[in-house]
Amino acid sequence: MKVALFGGTGFVGSYIIDELISQDFIPRVLVRHSSESKILNIDSCEIINGDINDDSAINDTIKGCEAVIYNIGIIRQFVRKGITFENLHFHGAKRCIDAAKKLGVNRFILMSANGVTHDGTDYQATKMLAEEYLKWVDLDYTIFRPSLVFGDPRDDRPEFCSHLKKYMLGLPFPAPSFHKGLNPFNGGKFALSPIHAMDVAKIFVHSINEKQSIKKTFALGGDAYYWKDIIKIISRAYGKNKWAVPAPVFPIKIMASFFENFPWFPITKDQLTMLVGGNVCDSSDVFKLFNIEPIPFNSESLSYLKN
Fold first, then answer.
1. How far is CA 193 from the centre of its chain?
2. pLDDT (tens digit per residue) in 96-155
3. Does residue 249 share a domain with residue 145?
4. CATH code, domain carrying 120
5. Has residue 84 got a pLDDT over 90?
6. Which residue pairs, CB below 8 angstroms and at least 24 apart, start in 151-155?
């Protein structure tokens, strides 16, 4: 059984490819020219060269497959380079949804994000538009909304914990315990529900033939942790004991508004907004449905941070 995968060269995509192969699926992956090296199991995949703006390449990727997984996503946009949330989260998904409908491939699985809303950041709003369009087209869809996804980034792919270590925790001063307003006692009082990329991949792939997941939307996350605890767990994973100090988010947002278009600046204004807004969910029923024992968020599962 062939499965069309969009977003296979990314962090979570690499895990989805592994899981597809382990479950005897053949991944057919749309890959930009010169990005083939990012496919770690390329001999077990069918590669279609092109990009998400190329309707012909999209059709070639989907044609003859029995399911489509749309996993393309970015955590920040660079408008001057044409890398935008609108194009990759919405228009790209729309092209693939339309192609699947035209080619008679009825099973469509979409990577969204926990907390999506029309009234949120551009990241959240464009993910929401893709969800609504998929439901409107009326395919046999499943939508997954992960919280914070962690795991070995493999070849320096963007991953939250590695990024946090490099740009915040690895620096020679205390970690920021972000808070809204002026009260420092509110520092770090927001929570996230980390889930391992391997668990996300298993859920995606197992859902392909799971009828109970059709036309449903699932939030994906593990146990909830406050920000201060996440800092401690990540720091201890690579042998440090990091202190955290209260950091009002407002002045950092102002700074981000000036520098977020430069790749070297570690965080954007919208990322800060989403971070301090929290991102938790209860996915116990999802793990039960797909018969998966979740990988815990602890020093052992974060051992890749020692490198």
1. 13
2. 999 999 999 999 999 999 999 999 899 999 999 999 999 999 899 999 999 999 999 988
3. no
4. 3.40.50.720
5. yes
6. 151/11, 151/15, 151/196, 151/197, 151/198, 151/301, 151/304, 152/197, 152/304, 153/11, 153/304, 154/11, 154/14, 154/40, 155/38, 155/40
Whether residue 165 is found in the same domain as residue 75: no
Considering the domain boundaries, does residue 214 fall inside one? yes
Give the structural domain span for 22: 2-151+193-221+280-292
Residue 279 near residue 149, CB atoms below 8 Å: no
The pLDDT tens digits of the residues spanning 156-193 come to 888 999 998 988 887 777 888 888 888 877 888 899 99
Q: Could you give the CA distance from residue 148 to residue 219 in angstroms, rounded to a whole number?
A: 11
- Give the span between the Cα atoms of 55 and 194, in whole angstroms: 35
Whether the full predicted model's pTM is greater than 0.90, yes or no, is: yes
User: What distance in Å separates the CA atoms of residue 72 and residue 31, rounded to the nearest whole number?
Assistant: 11
Domain count, the chain: 2
